[in-house]
Amino acid sequence: MKFVKLILCSTILLSLMNCAELFQKDKKDNNDALFALLLNAGCTISDVSSPTSGRKIDFTACRGDANAALTASGFSSSSISLSGGLVGTGSTSTVYTNSSSLSSLGGDKKASIEIVYVLSQSDSSISAILPSTTNLSGPGFYISPTTVNKLTSNGSNSALTTPRVWSSSVSAEKILCLEVHQESGNAHVFGWESSCAAANRGTYQFEEDGVAADFGGDRIGLRINKATIKSITIYSANIGTSGSFQ
């Protein structure tokens, strides 16, 4: 009987050891898979030189899930998915850069971007805040299917004093070049209905000076409502050359 008990105990112990080894192997395999996924996550980033130096982030060429891809590419996000770009569904769908994204260092702040996007419905919109705080506060632009408005310090939007209107861009890919300069505590917001490389840098197609704004941030922020962001180019030097604010 003692011999049988010894064999039984040995069998149970061996089984437990095998289970423990299998568990450790599965855990290691899972960790290795997760590590490999994180290493491969990200979006394609390329340097640009026209009209000034900058970096283009192509959101149509991202690897991994949205959070991992954006984190690896230098962004924080909320309620964002990936499907042919960054897809947002409402006011809580946000993205902002994790580090300073100014086009001018020292003195008054300046920020410059090119954005390629698609608005999916008639009530779609994109708020491009530049420069932005991490809670998406700051001056910038409110993009709708037919125009672009200014954003003020309280988050509201209204028409620019020099506006730009176009036919509805719902479901069509569109590109804008946008820039904000801090001037005497207020914002000079302006831009072009084109790529930044094709813009006439000395003449703005839409603009307003003296916009009340909070310049507490140094990031680029996006609020994506029923829209897709295909790419964004963040410039490290100014685009606009008109006026005395350079």
TrEMBL record:
<feature type="signal peptide">
    <location>
        <begin position="1"/>
        <end position="20"/>
    </location>
</feature>
<keyword id="KW-0732">Signal</keyword>
<protein>
    <recommendedName>
        <fullName>Lipoprotein</fullName>
    </recommendedName>
</protein>
